[in-house]
Amino acid sequence: MNRFVNWVTTNDNRVLMVVNKQWRCKTLDMLLPKITHLGGATFTLSLLFAMVLLFSNDLRIWAIDAFIALTLSFIAVQMIKKASGRKRPYLNLPNVITVENPLKDYSFPSGHSAAAFSIAIVFSLHSPLLAITVLPLAILVSLSRMYLGLHYPTDCLIGACLGVVSSILAVYFIYV
C-alpha cells in the first residue's frame, strides 16, 4: 500500500509541476484565471438561479437537477476536505506558481472541479449534444485549478468523479 501511495504522490506532484510550470504562456495566464471561476459558487449558483427564474421549459428542470447535483457534490466535498486535511500544493511544494490571496482551506477534493462537472454532466445527460461544449469547459476548470497552483491532479480527478456521481444521482434517482 505504501508503494502505491508513494507512486500516486510522486506522479501527482510531477503532473502538477508540468501543468503549473511548463505550460506557462501569456494566453493561459490570461484565460485560466477567468475560466476557473466557472466552477466557483458565485457563477454556478447565479447561473442555475437565473435559469430557474427565466425559463419555464426543460431548461428549468435541468437547472433544478443541476442544483441538486451541485448540492450533493458540495456536501461530499466539504465532508472529505475536513476528513482529509490535505494542504494545498503551494503550501507543500517549493516554487509552485499561484494566485494572489490564494485559498487557504484544504485541497482534497477540488470543489471547483466537482461543481463544474456536476453541472456539465447534468446538462450532458439531458442533452448529449451539449456535452460537446460543457465537458471541455469542465475539464478546463479542473486544469485551471492545477495551473493556478491550488490543487493537485488527484484533487481535481476526485472532484470531477464526485460531480459525475452527484449528477447521476440527481438525474436518475432523485425522482424515482
TrEMBL record:
For this UniProt record, the keywords arranged alphabetically read as follows: Cell membrane, Hydrolase, Membrane, Transmembrane, Transmembrane helix
Which Pfam families does the record associate with it? PAP2
The UniProt entry's GO CC annotations, sorted and at most eight, read: plasma membrane
Q: Name one GO molecular function term.
A: hydrolase activity
What's the protein's topology in the membrane?
Multi-pass membrane protein
Q: Where in the cell is it found?
A: Cell membrane
Q: In what residue span(s) does the Phosphatidic acid phosphatase type 2/haloperoxidase domain sit?
A: 63-171
Major localization class: membrane
Transmembrane segment boundaries: 31-55, 61-80, 114-137, 157-175
Instruction: Tell me the protein's name.
Output: Phosphatidic acid phosphatase type 2/haloperoxidase domain-containing protein
